[in-house]
Design goal:
Distance between the termini: 50 Å
Shape: globular
Number of strands: 0
Order of helices and strands: HHHH
Strand content: under 5%
Length: about 100
Amino acid sequence: MKALIPSIRDFVRKDWQESPTRCTLEIIAWFMSIGAAILMGVTLPNPPWLILYPLFIVQCTIFAWASKTRGSTGLLANYMILVTIDTIALGKYLTTL
C-alpha cells in the first residue's frame, strides 16, 4: 500500500511530461465527472438534465480525445458510445420541454 502513492505520483508526473495539455484536460474532465455525479446525487429525484447532459458530453469527449492520444482503443470506444448515448438522450429531453 505504501508503494501505491509514489506509483500514482510517478504516473501523473510522467503523464504531465508526455503531454501537459492532455494531463490538464483529463484532470478537468475528472473534476467535471465528479461534480456531475455530486450534482445528480444531491438533486435527485429531479436532477437538472440541462446542466448534467452537457457536462457528461463534454467530459466524455475530453476523455475520448485523451484515450485516442494514448492509443487506447477500448477507452476510446467506451467514451464515444457514452457521448453518443448522452447526446441522443439530451436531444430527446430537449424535445419534451
